[in-house]
């Protein structure tokens, strides 16, 4: 694994900059712009050409080594929340607070698919790696790849067990930016089972598609695409998962936001988390040295 983060190793359109006092990779190509912080391998912005930011990041987010950034796409693992035993800390594991290293970066210019009448936009692929950060000493490692373009964003999170087996929970805890979460509608969650984290993980059946009219913290038994319909920003966001077993839907509402120092009181209206996950009873068992890859593809369409 390369441990260098020298600016001259980065592809055209990608630079290493100091943002909020911490190192971040800034993507600025004709197709889009994006920001990935090395702390947590944390993408905090993706703005396709002509679009509003697709992900929401809190204006009060804390940026410091060892701190979790509120918003964007936190990489969660090797456990979710307090872990399956309900007592593991820190919450959501240590992947999101460790400082990752640049492995590679590449800029792909537009190209035509010979087998289909499709022209692919410019995109950048950035890979970050994490070694030597496992506090358990078993040697768990991780790698994250971001493929960033105008028509899609792909995030891959690979977690490799160390010298011991691992009951892995991981997630892409994506904060999607919306005009007003109370007006947002969904496709892909209807008539599925979920665990309700606001009712001690009570098993529940979803009747129709969910509506955000209060705090929501649900782990759906859904591993297929989910579409977020946003009538305020007049766009749809499609989240297509791979390697997942669950989809988490989360919004803290006003009551939850009031207890978060890194979020303005009214900010809960501006996002909804649709998380690609393997967690709770949908965890993945890994043998020593075995790898699991969790992926999500995000696409925008206009009504």
From TrEMBL:
Task: Name one process (GO BP) from the record.
Answer: carbohydrate metabolic process
Query: What is the similarity comment for this entry?
Result: Belongs to the glucose-6-phosphate 1-epimerase family.
Can you name the source organism? Brachybacterium endophyticum
Signal peptide as annotated in the record: none
Q: What top-tier enzyme class does this entry carry?
A: isomerase
Gene3D superfamilies (UniProt xref): 2.70.98.10
Q: Which reaction does it catalyse?
A: alpha-D-glucose 6-phosphate = beta-D-glucose 6-phosphate
* Entry-linked InterPro entries: Aldose_1/G6P_1-epimerase (IPR008183), G6P_1-epimerase (IPR025532), Gal_mutarotase_sf_dom (IPR011013), GH-type_carb-bd (IPR014718)
UniProt keyword Isomerase, yes or no? yes
Q: What EC designation does it have?
A: 5.1.3.15
Enzyme active site: 173, 275
Q: Which UniProt keywords apply?
A: Isomerase
Q: Which GO terms describe its molecular function?
A: carbohydrate binding; glucose-6-phosphate 1-epimerase activity
Keyword Iron among UniProt keywords: no
**Mind telling me what this protein is named?**
Putative glucose-6-phosphate 1-epimerase
Taken from the record, one Pfam family name reads: Aldose_epim
């Amino acid at each position: 694994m390369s441990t260098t983060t020298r600016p001259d190793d980065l592809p055209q359109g990608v630079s290493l900059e100091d943002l909020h006092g911490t190192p971040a990779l800034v993507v600025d190509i004709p197709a889009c712009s994006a920001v990935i912080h090395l702390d947590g391998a944390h993408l905090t912005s993706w703005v396709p050409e002509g679009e509003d930011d697709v992900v929401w990041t809190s204006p009060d987010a804390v940026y410091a080594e060892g701190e979790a950034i509120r918003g964007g796409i936190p990489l969660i693992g090797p456990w979710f929340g307090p872990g399956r035993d309900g007592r593991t800390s820190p919450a959501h594991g240590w992947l999101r607070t460790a400082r990752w290293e640049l492995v590679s970066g590449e800029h792909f210019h537009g190209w035509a698919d010979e087998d289909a009448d499709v022209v692919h936009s410019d995109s950048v692929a950035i890979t970050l790696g994490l070694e030597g950060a496992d506090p358990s000493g078993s040697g768990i490692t991780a790698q994250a790849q971001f493929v960033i373009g105008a028509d899609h964003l792909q995030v891959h999170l690979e977690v490799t067990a160390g010298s011991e087996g691992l009951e892995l929970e991981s997630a892409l805890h994506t904060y999607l930016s919306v005009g007003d979460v109370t007006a947002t509608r969904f496709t892909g969650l209807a008539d599925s089972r979920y665990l309700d984290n606001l009712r001690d993980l009570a098993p529940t059946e979803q009747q129709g598609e969910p509506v955000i009219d209060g705090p929501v913290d649900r782990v759906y038994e859904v591993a297929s695409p989910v579409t977020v319909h946003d009538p305020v920003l007049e766009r749809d966001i499609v989240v297509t998962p791979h390697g997942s077993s669950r989809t988490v839907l989360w919004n803290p509402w006003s009551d939850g936001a009031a207890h978060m120092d890194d979020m303005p009181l009214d900010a809960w209206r501006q996002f909804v988390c649709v998380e690609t996950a393997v967690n709770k009873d949908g965890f993945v068992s890994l043998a020593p040295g075995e790898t699991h890859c969790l992926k999500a593809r995000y696409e925008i369409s206009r009504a």
